[in-house]
Automatic annotation (TrEMBL):
InterPro entries: IolE/XylAMocC-like, Xyl_isomerase-like_sf, Xyl_isomerase-like_TIM-brl
Protein name: Xylose isomerase-like TIM barrel domain-containing protein
Residues covered by the Xylose isomerase-like TIM barrel domain: 36-288
SUPFAM superfamilies found in the cross-reference section: Xylose isomerase-like
Domain of life: Bacteria
PANTHER family linked to this entry: HYDROXYPYRUVATE ISOMERASE, XYLOSE ISOMERASE-LIKE TIM BARREL DOMAIN-CONTAINING PROTEIN
């Protein structure tokens, strides 16, 4: 077994549908209805947001109970923002926020807290400072048995590539601190996938998947807007070949952790829950059956048949 709790790299690299889950942000409506739609589509895990708990009309305890009643395993909990590189009262404030996030993460049984790279102009760009702070965050998570996945936002102030995030994770050298990889940010930054070879697969704690509908993103503003409003499921966008390559590479490297569909899409927010969950299911089927169980399809032949 590796650090992800899955078979080691010597195990077959076939896809497993149970490794794929949905993010609650993709669906509209009450938490209970979103969880039920995921379950009805066959998913066994869910990526939760802090807003799912604090925004529940009956409070955090009721939200936690709803998650438990759903029978879904919690992939992870998000998202701690702008934590690393601060000092003085700003650092103390963020430590308090982190403690609250960790408590909620623990309450829902999540084993991974996602922290994304800072966008704050008040944060230091020193790798040593950022590594120090992330090591501290990881230590706060140890008593709860939680791992911290550090993700590079493509509009992060100092860290906007996963290679930079990996440098900081390596420097921090904490057993429960690793990487969170978001396919959107890799695609948006056109990060060479060969760079994945530099990463220890046992230190990848979470992989989030999404695509978008245009080839080029021409500015940081467009990148942020696309990320927050126009993502689509893998197999629905125009980067199918790159996504297939990414997932295949991760599998061949020995990654046996979870994949979550993090799809921010305003249109999906206006569609019936079963319809959106069914689209996610088709995407998971494409990845498990069309990518991980077989050779990567030829470019142009990977569009989801059900969506043509």
């Amino acid at each position: 077994m590796n650090a992800n709790g899955k078979p080691s790299a010597s195990a077959p690299a076939a896809g497993n549908f149970r490794d794929f889950g949905m993010d609650t942000i993709t669906l509209a409506g009450p938490l209970e209805a979103r969880l039920a739609a995921m379950r009805a589509a066959g998913f066994e895990q869910v990526m939760l947001s802090a807003r799912d708990l604090v925004g529940h009309p009956q409070g955090v305890d009721a939200a936690v109970q709803a998650v438990r009643d759903s029978g879904l395993r919690v992939t992870g909990f998000q998202v701690l923002r702008d934590f690393e590189g601060l000092s003085g009262h700003l650092h103390a404030y963020k430590v308090d926020v982190a403690k609250s996030m960790l408590e909620m993460c623990h309450a829902v049984g999540a084993k991974v807290l996602l922290a994304c790279s800072s966008t704050s102009s008040h944060a230091s760009d020193s790798v040593a400072d950022m590594a120090r702070d992330l090591r501290k965050l990881a230590m706060l998570a140890v008593p709860m048995g939680i791992r911290v996945a550090f993700e590079a936002l493509s509009w992060g102030r100092s860290v906007n590539e996963f290679t930079q995030a990996w440098e900081i994770v390596e420097r921090a050298d904490a057993p429960n601190l690793g990487l969170g990889l978001d396919a959107f940010h890799l695609l948006a930054m056109k990060t060479p996938l060969d760079a994945l070879d530099l990463v220890d697969p046992d230190k990848i704690f979470l992989v989030q998947l999404a695509d978008f509908m245009w080839q080029e993103i021409r500015s940081v503003e467009e990148r942020i807007s696309t990320a927050r409003h126009f993502r689509v499921f893998p197999g629905e966008g125009v980067h199918n070949e790159a996504l297939a390559d990414m997932v295949t590479r991760l599998s061949q490297m020995g990654y046996r952790g979870d994949y979550s569909f993090e799809v921010f899409n305003d249109d999906y927010q206006q569609m019936p829950l079963p319809t959106v969950a069914a689209r996610a299911r088709r995407s998971a089927d494409w990845l498990t059956e069309g990518v991980l169980r077989r050779s990567v399809p030829l470019p142009g032949s990977m569009q989801l048949k059900a969506l043509r």
